[in-house]
Amino acid sequence: MGNDNQIRIGVISCTNIVRKVSRAINLAPNATLAAIATTSSIEEAKSFATSNNFPPTAKIHSSIESLVEDPDVDAVYFPIPTSLHVEWAVRAAEKGKHILVDKPVALNVSEFDQIVSACELYCVQFMDGTQWLHNPRTDKIKAFISDPLSFGQIQTVHSCFTFAANENFLKNDIRVKPGLDGLGALGDAGWYTIQATLLANNFKLPKTVTALPGPVLNDAGIVLSCGALLNWEEGVTATIYCSFLANLTMEITAIGTKGTLRVHDFVIPFQETEASYTTSTRRCLSEHKVMTELPQESCMVIEFARLVGEIKNRGAKPDWFWLSISRKTQLLVDAVKESIDNNLKPVLLSDW
Amino acid sequence: MGNDNQIRIGVISCTNIVRKVSRAINLAPNATLAAIATTSSIEEAKSFATSNNFPPTAKIHSSIESLVEDPDVDAVYFPIPTSLHVEWAVRAAEKGKHILVDKPVALNVSEFDQIVSACELYCVQFMDGTQWLHNPRTDKIKAFISDPLSFGQIQTVHSCFTFAANENFLKNDIRVKPGLDGLGALGDAGWYTIQATLLANNFKLPKTVTALPGPVLNDAGIVLSCGALLNWEEGVTATIYCSFLANLTMEITAIGTKGTLRVHDFVIPFQETEASYTTSTRRCLSEHKVMTELPQESCMVIEFARLVGEIKNRGAKPDWFWLSISRKTQLLVDAVKESIDNNLKPVLLSDW
């Protein structure tokens, strides 16, 4: 049951990711599952709500439209195909709903900026649904990378996220369809790797982005695997690699002048209750474990609901930090895509 | 003391690497330290021989020339600057000496091929001094990567070798001097990373090599840090990164369709007596430890002496496997250098 201090969140559809995020909302002390909008049948949504422990008060909406107009909903989680994000995020913002939008947020940054405008105009909180950024481990990683004594200055970072999709996924998943999630592996797996390289560079944008030779596209031109190089000043570089065609691998290797960070499961930790990473200085390696009382998706919901609560209950302004790093990620996704489309030509970020 | 079955190896100079390799020769049951050639004073060489447990029979030569003419020497280890390799390797081969040559073997592949010709003409065994290839762990890694059931088909491999050189190194080491080891970090650290990507691809040469934007050169134009992309058919890629400017890091991450391999200390294992690596399939990670009774540099000497023994005692032909992968590595080092020199233009390997 909700209480007045809980942010009332509405979700859309009955997919696996909604199952996961619904559980996360249930676990978050400052949020409650207020409603679900079905994209198919009311019966399915009812059954989904029951089997996923929605409070009995949770409403079942027969359309997204009805959900975003519900006065008893503070915020909406959007796990819908990317091509539908702009329309629905903007419509939700117009109704004063705070928005949690799955990555990739948009098909390109100009679409993204329509969401930015709506959030600014209607003073609503934005967050993209990248869960690993909210794992307590991520703060520890940031602290290590920011420490001039143990890590020094960043020199290079390599991040990859790959998984071997099955035949059905490669034929039918929305992530391989031009009309739905047209950014393919780049918008999906690549989004995480780009955020990891941004994090390692304290969210400073690189100067240039160059797609690496050898991207694999499907017949519809959707990226199934690709790599890219990001360049900052003074020889600081990052390489990313994302793929639907290779065994599950989720790496960050960040190398500074004095220290090295290694993470092997940065996107989804191998264990839900603890997450590890390795730091080293010269030949001295240290393993670190970070306990996570709540799964990282709950940490995300808690932070999102906290920010919404500040606005709703204390008249605060939205916090644009999450929007800012999300938009930077979109910029870089766009740049990799542009470089792929332009025969691997480097894209200067100052052009944006 | 040597015996008839031991291959008599001569070494040159009194540097740290010679100290290490001399110990390795002492530990190898099929090799003996037969001689040392000084590049400075006889006294220093005598003292070096004593403190490094050379047998009392070991000869002290006042020049490399005298060493390569010594009839009681079967093979010579060359830890001299790269710019001197061709001349001395060829002169040693002419005298029928088998040669163990430190990496990078030559300043370019046409120099390398003078060594190849001499080895073929005089029927002498060649090996480059890359020690990690002889660590028992490397065979285990190869077996995992070659296993279609657990690893599948290679999709991508990332390898980096970096260390933070001090000010003195960056000013005075032969590896930053155009006249001596003009290939800089690429010929030194990069050599290892390129061999790692070749190993992951069963020593098949890539189709193209492209240097990545952002190489760092010193005032004399020597590479201090750089990266490159290697492309095989069907979207198989590798990225390498080598640097004298970043914390010690020695990674291989190889991702196949079914499995992933991770090695964190591939060049010089953190421990001399055991070496570890990690394999994973989906979310199931396994740590493996390989015991190494002898240090990897001894394994190298044992293999080299075994091959020399086959020729010396059984009339066998030289084994060209090590020469072949060494030459491929030189080809790829050259290609990265050419790409850096040509504004990062891709280099087609079929051009060679």
What does this structure look like?
The structure is a homodimer of 352-residue chains. With 352 residues, chain A is α/β, with parallel strands linked by helices. Chain A has two domains: 148 residues, NAD(P)-binding Rossmann-like Domain (Rossmann fold), CATH 3.40.50; 186 residues, Dihydrodipicolinate Reductase, domain 2, CATH 3.30.360. Chain A is 35% helix and 27% strand. In chain A, the strands form two sheets. In chain A, strands 7, 8, 9, 10, 11, 12, 13, 14, 15 and 16 form a ten-stranded mixed beta sheet that branches. Chain A has a six-stranded parallel beta sheet with strand order 3-2-1-4-5-6, with helices on both faces. In chain A, strand 1, helix 1 and strand 2 form a beta-alpha-beta unit. Chain A starts with 6 loop residues before the first strand and ends with a strand. The mean pLDDT of chain A is 95. At the A-B interface, strand 7, strand 10, strand 11, strand 12 and strand 14 of A face strand 7, strand 10, strand 11, strand 12 and strand 14 of B.
What's the mean pLDDT score of chain A? 95
Number of domains of chain A: 2
- Using only C-alpha atoms, the radius of gyration of chain A works out to 20 Å
- Quaternary state of this entry equals homodimer
Protein name (chains A, B): Oxidoreductase
Pfam families (chains A, B): GFO_IDH_MocA (PF01408), GFO_IDH_MocA_C3 (PF22725)
Domain GFO/IDH/MocA-like oxidoreductase (chains A, B): 151-262
Organism (chains A, B): Cardamine amara subsp. amara
